[in-house]
Amino acid sequence: MNDSKMITVTSPLLPDLKEFYNSLEKIWDSKWLTNNGSFHQRLEKALAEYLGVEYISLFTNGTLPLITALQALGLTKGEVITTPYSFVATTHSIWWNGLTPVFVDVDPNTGNIDPEKIEAAITEDTVAIMPVHVYGQPCDHERIEAIAKKHNLKVIYDAAHAFGVCKNGESVLKWGDISTLSFHATKVYGTIEGGAIVCRSREMKTKIDNLRNFGIVDEVSVAYPGINGKMDEARAAFGLLNLKQVDAAISKRKQVAERYRKELTGVDGVTFLQEETNIRYNYGYFPIFVNEEKYGISRDALYVKLKENNILGRRYFYPLISTFEPYRTYFSAAPSNLPIATKMAEEVLCLPIHHALSNEEVSRIVDIVRKIK
Ligand code: T4K
After folding, report:
1. Which residue lies with its CA nearest to atom 50 of ligand 1?
2. pLDDT band of 186, cuts 50, 70, 90
3. Alpha-carbon torsion 56, 57, 63, 69, what sign?
4. Residue 174, SS3?
5. Residue whose CB lies within 8 A of the most ligand 1 atoms, among 70, 87, 314, for a mutation test
6. Which of 150, 230, 297, 319 has the highest Cβ tally under 10 A?
7. What is the predicted pLDDT for the residue at 4?
8. What region does 371 belong to: left with phi over 0, alpha with psi -120 to 50, or beta?
9. Atom 15 (ligand 1): residue with closest C-alpha?
10. 24 vs 234: CA distance, rounded Å
11. d(CA 288, CA 278)
12. Is pLDDT at 128 greater than 80 in this prediction?
């Protein structure tokens, strides 16, 4: 291990401490700490505006929105088609609702569920599709939603990585029946822990807001077996301050991504996902794919080499969800059913990317990947 400064895959976006302290003073003065307080209300409004969506409900993390989305759509029995190439929370949310996850392989160009393969996985028990905009790469929503319409299925997008992502000027959060977000500290935009649901109607938002608060409708009625998913005032205040600097953070991330693309193009055995000009990305992740035969060493060997140089890349998303203990015996989890996802998981390495990464740090990373050091 050398003694250079540690570089992590991401770094949290932190508001100015004095400004955060001022917000905390206001919360202290008001003595209103949670349960739809004024900071919470302001953040919901500000986020709806920033993201260009009409109905958004804040949550205490990005996993409860997934669980609650399925509840809100009344899905309590059957199969949900999903991707194995994601963070494990995606599939867990299906399991937590007593539903059966059905894994479908991904498209090698995006890492997202391959619409081409969805129909073959539909049975009479299928009730929904849960795709993920992995790394903030928009899914092929037109084809996914055409299939959903034909088979009368709900579509819930796990948009945990897609904060602010737009295609042809439209927020990807407007797609499907429901989209969910994560505001975890490791994300482009964070509230320490946090998340949200974006839905399509006032009625649905009311239902989601009730589900988020134990299913309570008013002082004397509980309509659903809801959960406690509420975001507190301190985190809402943190989120309001971060909203002021998220555009600058995305610009910095974009510069890092552009340098990686420029300086790693042509490295034999290293590829990355292609960008499209009609998409506004958030540069939350920079995955590279290492072909051992062409690159000369394996992805894991490169991962270790970076680590020895105090650079902590992450193998998002390895291992595949379908290989984890709770899911590996499912019929659809067979590696033969998921060859592309299996290959991507074996080759992927997410390089550090965040707003605070210096040019010198990017050079250190690039030099190692290019085998200059
Ligand atoms: N759906 C998808 C597609 C998701 O990717 C996620 C979460 C969810 C749903 C669920 O959303 P949440 O319920 O989490 O809101 C991280 C995050 O914990 C997780 O939010 C995220 N996806 C997943 C992809 O990554 P780890 O285990 O990789 O995080 P950790 O603690 O190793 O942190 C990575 C690096 O970030 C560290 O090396 C240093 C840096 N870091 C991290 C934290 C927590 C900091 O500098 N400061 C920090 O406070 O899971």
Report:
1. 186
2. very high
3. negative
4. helix
5. 87
6. 230
7. 81
8. left
9. 62
10. 7
11. 22
12. yes
pTM over 0.85: yes
Domain range list for the chain: 17-103+111-243, 247-370
Give which of 127, 41, 131 is closest to 85, Cα–Cα.
131
Please report which helix (H) or strand (E) contains residue 285, including its range: none
3-state secondary structure of 155: strand
CB 144 within 8 A of CB 131: yes
Centre a 10 Å sphere on the Cβ of residue 166 and count the other Cβ atoms it contains.
19
- Per residue in 266-279, pLDDT (tens digit) is 999 999 999 999 99
Query: Phi, psi (5° rounding) for residue 105?
Result: -70, 170
* CATH 3.40.640.10 corresponds to the domain 17-103+111-243: yes
Cis geometry, peptide bond prior to residue 286 (ω within 30 degrees of 0): no
Q: Contact, 362 vs 303, CB < 8 A?
A: no
CATH homologous superfamily, domain 247-370: Aspartate Aminotransferase, domain 1 (3.90.1150.10)
Q: Six-digit token pair at 300?
A: 């894991």
Pocket of ligand 1 (CB under 6 A): 8-12, 61-63, 86-87, 89-90, 132, 158, 160-161, 182, 184-186, 195, 312, 314, 316
How do residues 2-56 score in pLDDT, each as one tens digit? 678 899 999 999 999 999 999 999 999 999 999 999 999 999 999 999 999 999 9
Q: Report the pLDDT value the prediction gives residue 250, as an integer from 0 to 100.
A: 98
CB within 8 A of 300, min separation 6: which ones? Answer: none
Token pair, residue 343, equals 């290959």
139/107 Cα distance (integer angstroms): 10
* Cα 151 to averaged position of ligand 1 atoms, centre (Å): 34
**By the 8 A CB rule, do 112 and 140 touch?**
yes
**Which residue carries 């291990």 as its tokens?**
1
Name which of 320, 277, 316 is nearest 9 in CA terms.
316
Taken as a whole, the chain contains a residue count of: 373
Residue 90: partners with Cβ closer than 8 Å, 6 or more residues away: 66, 82, 83, 130, 132, 158, 321
- How far is residue 298's CA from residue 273's CA, in Å, rounded to a whole number? 19
Element (H, E) at 151: helix 141-151
- The b-or-e profile of 75-94 (16+ CB within 10 A means b, else e) is beebbbbbbbbbbbbbbbbb
